[in-house]
Amino acid sequence: MARKEHIKTSGSGAVSFNMTPMIDIVFNLIIFFILTSQFAQLEIEQVALPLSMAAKVKDTGEYRNVVINLVDPDDPKCVVFGQQVDYLVREDDNELSAMLKSFKKAGGEEKPLNVILRADELIPYEAVASVMLAAGRAQIEGWWITTEVAEREDILGG
Amino acid sequence: MAKRGPPKKPDSIQPPMTPMIDIVFQLLIFFLLTPSQSGEGYLTTNLPRTSGPVAGEKQVDVKRVKIELQVPEHDDKGVVIVLNENQTFGKNFEGLLAALEGLRARGLAADHPVLISPWMSCRQKWVVRAFDMAVAARFTNIHFAVPYI
């Protein structure tokens, strides 16, 4: 006599929804969009920043920011919004000072224009001075120099 | 009469660890990266005056504290610090800081003008370091020398 096989079946047939991979993907997307929006906002270039113990972390959202990158210590170049810009000192406006003047004019009075300098630590001071002159000529209200925040012991030694 | 077998032990429930570890790592990455993506900070400095009554004029103020940053002949990435044209510290920024603190202790006000005058070939890291020392000595009126046009 054949044995009857009993096949167990689940009760209602409901499908359970696995949340774990969904949370995984959501976090990945959040991290991706936060990081890309922050980098896109500031248009920063990769430089080795100098160390400073006096530097403070600030909220850049209060200002209209223009980030001026000084890269390549052997042949210093000025890069603004991904474009190389002429910054050599002249009696009249150079490309950088003209650009800063037009940004200042375009933005109006709502938020002050703030220039953030990101210069490689090995960039000669001549390049920095040229950028400062261009910003001074455009009568920029705010001027920040970007550095890596460091402790006194790291800078002066134990 | 039906035989009673030994009582069955309840099956132990093991929560799935893999998704839990996944989520923990995700949270870790999220909180590490989102507050600030790096240890970057900003120094607020003064720009040279290129407009107004003193625009373009060579500013001569014998009472200012002058920190000159020279570049040694044998090392174009090095620095030689000269304070007030008579004190030399080599590359010793701690010595510079001590001297600046000494000036403050002798009664120089915090808003006494300090001029950092690097040679054009001096590297930016030394300029920032000199600025740091002036700020650490609690000076608040610090300017950078720029080429006179």
Describe the structure.
The complex is a heterodimer of chains A (158) and B (149). Chain A is built from four helices and six strands, in the order αββββαβαβα. Chain A is α/β, with parallel strands linked by helices. In chain A, strands 1-6-5-2-3-4 form a six-stranded mixed β-sheet, with helices on one face. In chain A, a hairpin with a 5-residue loop joins strand 2 (64-71) and strand 3 (77-80). The longest helix of chain B has 17 residues, at 17-33. The model of chain B has no long low-confidence stretch (mean pLDDT 81). In chain B, a hairpin with a 3-residue loop joins strand 3 (80-83) and strand 4 (87-90). With 149 residues, chain B is α/β, with parallel strands linked by helices. Chains A and B meet through helix 1, strand 1, helix 3, strand 6 and helix 4 of A and helix 1, strand 1, helix 2 and helix 3 of B. Strand 6 (142-149) of chain A pairs antiparallel with strand 1 (40-44) of chain B.
